[in-house]
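Subject: design request, 445 residues
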């Protein structure tokens, strides 16, 4: 075996295996995958686009033979955390977005087995077409992101299965020598049980494949939450920054006391909410290019956005939601202003009514209400692009036509996801997005 990386020889072997069109050289890979919202640059040695999961073992063997590092992506939309870019230079990207099959669905228990290229939108269509009453584990990253990629990064959502890797019951992966990893139950022929019982038998090893790149995961089984009888959003504001600490404690109490009914609660600062609602005040910045506090306050007043906004979800029967609402009112007493509970249909009515109000006030209120309406569709398990406009807030050309893609469009964004101790859902000690705080940092273009 040669000691040095031999990228040209590896590319030649991959072309024989996959065909020319599925293998990109360094320059082509740079063009297709090099852009990233964090401003980080990487030198790419190439990219591979297999269309059949059976090709992956041989792809990995070729990589090992020529000592060429591979970096797998599912849809490569890890915006704010590095996009499609590998953690080091000179890797060949293994783009698995062409593997788009939904391999199995248990319509009774709601467990779906998907390949890496299956997106939130594809699963939503599949569930709609079959009339299956289950929720897509949506995220703010939008309809065109992979379910598998997000779960492997220990992504987070606010539908009932908030911890997306926590909902993974089984997976299959290709290891560095090209051999296949399967859970012990699968190896023993118990595929049906393996999909339902994550712990299987013997040591639990599937977690090794999260945030690690120890193997190339070719399929995961995900437990979906059953669509509840009722979905209701919880919305409240904090008038002052000084209320934040108490609010975090109260949110923690709510999560501890109402597990299973409250999906998740996000606390978002004024910048975060205005970035999804109002135009960027490009002509009113200070000498450092920042929004002066008085301008922020004025925008907050105009768009009815307070220093902090709490947004959460309640799932359950009518009776359960009514009881939870009473508990939440009590828990947030004295700190929350404008505490509202809204169903998706209420939000649509609100947006419709606001747009009938005359003048700029009506228009601004209409915009805030429309954002709220789309957020409610999201928490009802229907993926959409509500959160993505925040990446374009400082973008001089704004959003173009078609699906949004902040990396392709040259937006600047880095996520800063602090951990803070919160209630512990049964299966989720700590995920990437855990904790109640989710401030974002929109960088200038
Ligand atoms: C406005 C906005 C809102 C967002 N909201 C959320 C949110 O609510 N929740 C959230 O979790 N994230 C959120 N994100 C962050 C991010 O965009 C999503 O997590 C997105 O789903 C990740 O991209 P992806 O699914 O294409 O995964 P990929 O980019 O394909 O992969 C992510 C990581 O997993 C590894 N990986 C992927 N596939 C494999 C595989 N088959 N085998 C081994 N390793 C693999 C990759 O190497 C990479 O490190 C948001 C981003 C933005 C811009």
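Subject: RE: design request

Done. Sequence follows.
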């Amino acid at each position: 075996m040669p000691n040095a990386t031999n990228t040209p020889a590896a590319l030649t072997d991959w072309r024989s295996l996959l065909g020319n069109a599925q293998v990109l050289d360094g320059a082509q890979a740079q063009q297709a995958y090099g852009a990233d919202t964090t401003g980080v640059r990487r030198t790419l040695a190439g990219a591979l686009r297999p269309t059949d999961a059976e090709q992956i073992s041989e792809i990995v063997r070729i990589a090992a033979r020529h000592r060429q590092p591979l970096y797998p992506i599912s849809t490569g939309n890890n915006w704010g955390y590095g996009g499609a870019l590998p953690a080091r230079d000179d890797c060949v990207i293994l783009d698995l977005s062409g593997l788009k099959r939904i391999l199995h669905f248990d319509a009774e228990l709601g467990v779906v087995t998907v390949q890496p290229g299956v997106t939130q939108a594809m699963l939503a269509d599949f569930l709609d077409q079959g009339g299956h009453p289950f929720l897509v584990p949506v995220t703010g990253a939008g309809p065109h992101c992979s379910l598998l990629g997000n779960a492997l990064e220990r992504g987070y959502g606010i539908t009932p299965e908030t911890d997306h890797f926590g909902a993974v019951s089984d997976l299959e992966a290709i290891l560095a020598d090209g051999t296949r990893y399967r859970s012990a139950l699968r190896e023993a022929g118990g595929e049906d049980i393996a999909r339902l019982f994550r712990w299987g038998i013997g040591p639990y090893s599937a977690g090794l494949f999260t945030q690690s790149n120890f193997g190339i995961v070719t399929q995961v089984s995900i437990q979906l939450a059953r669509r509840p009888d009722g979905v209701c959003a919880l919305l409240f504001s904090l008038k002052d920054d000084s209320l934040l600490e108490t609010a975090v404690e109260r949110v923690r109490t709510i999560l501890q006391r109402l597990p299973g009914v409250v999906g998740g609660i996000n606390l978002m600062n004024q910048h975060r909410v205005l970035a999804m609602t109002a135009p960027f005040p490009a002509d009113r910045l200070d000498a450092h290019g920042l929004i002066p506090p008085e301008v922020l306050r004025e925008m907050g007043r105009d768009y009815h956005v307070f220093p902090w906004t709490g947004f959460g979800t309640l799932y359950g029967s009518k009776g359960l939601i009514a009881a939870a609402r009473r508990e939440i009112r009590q828990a947030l007493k004295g700190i929350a202003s404008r505490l509202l509970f809204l169903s998706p249909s209420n939000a649509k009515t609100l947006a419709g009514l606001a747009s009938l109000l005359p003048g700029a006030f009506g228009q601004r209120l209409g915009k805030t209400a429309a954002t709220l309406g789309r957020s409610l569709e999201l928490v009802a398990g229907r993926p959409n692009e509500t959160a993505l406009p925040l990446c374009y807030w400082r973008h001089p050309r704004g959003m173009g036509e078609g699906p949004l893609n902040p990396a392709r469009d040259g937006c600047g964004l880095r996520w800063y996801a602090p951990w803070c101790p919160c209630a512990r859902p049964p299966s989720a000690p700590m995920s990437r997005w855990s904790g109640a705080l989710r401030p974002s940092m929109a960088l200038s273009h």
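Residues 72-80, 84, 96, 116, 139-141, 145-146, 148-150, 152-153, 155-157, 213, 216-217, 387-388, 390-391, 406, 413, 433 surround flavin-adenine dinucleotide (CB under 6 Å).
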